C-alpha cells in the first residue's frame, strides 16, 4: 500500500501512467495504473515499491504485537 504522498509522487512523475482514484480510494493505498501505457520496468518498479512498503509495515505491526506477531484467537 502506498501512502497518499507516495501515490502523489508516482502521479506527478508519470501522470500518463498513474492516476489517483477519485472518491477517496487513495486513502486505502489504491492507485490506478494504465497498463497499456506502462513499460515493464515502470510497472515492476511500482509493484516492488508497494511490496517493499507493505513488508516494512507488516514488520512494524508484528513488533507491536505480543509473541512476535502471533495473534491469539480467544473465542
What's a quick, concise take on this entry?
By secondary structure, this protein is mostly helical. The chain is 47% helix and 8% strand.
Number of domains: 1
Strand order in the sheet with the most strands: 1-2
The tally of helices reads: 2
The outline comes out as: globular
Number of DSSP strand runs: 2
Estimated radius of gyration: 16 Å
Distance between the termini: 30 Å
Tell me the structural class: mainly alpha
**Spans where pLDDT lies below 50 across 5 or more residues:** none
> H/E series, N to C?
HEEH
Largest sheet geometry: 2 strands, antiparallel
> Residue share in helices?
40-55%
Oligomeric organization of the protein chains = single chain
Mean pLDDT figure: 82
Beta-strand content:
5-15%
Write the SSE topology:
Elements: H1 4-13, E1 18-20, E2 31-33, H2 40-64
Identify the notable features of this structure and list them briefly.
75 residues; mainly alpha; two-stranded antiparallel ribbon; 2 strands; globular
Amino acid at each position: 500500500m502506498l501512502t497518499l504522498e507516495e501515490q502523489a509522487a508516482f502521479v506527478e512523475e508519470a501522470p500518463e501512467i498513474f492516476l489517483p482514484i477519485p472518491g477517496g480510494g487513495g486513502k486505502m493505498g489504491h492507485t490506478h495504473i494504465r497498463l497499456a501505457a506502462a513499460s515493464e520496468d515502470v510497472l515492476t518498479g511500482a509493484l516492488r515499491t508497494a511490496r517493499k512498503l507493505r513488508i516494512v509495515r507488516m514488520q512494524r505491526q508484528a513488533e507491536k504485537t505480543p509473541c512476535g506477531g502471533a495473534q491469539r484467537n480467544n473465542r
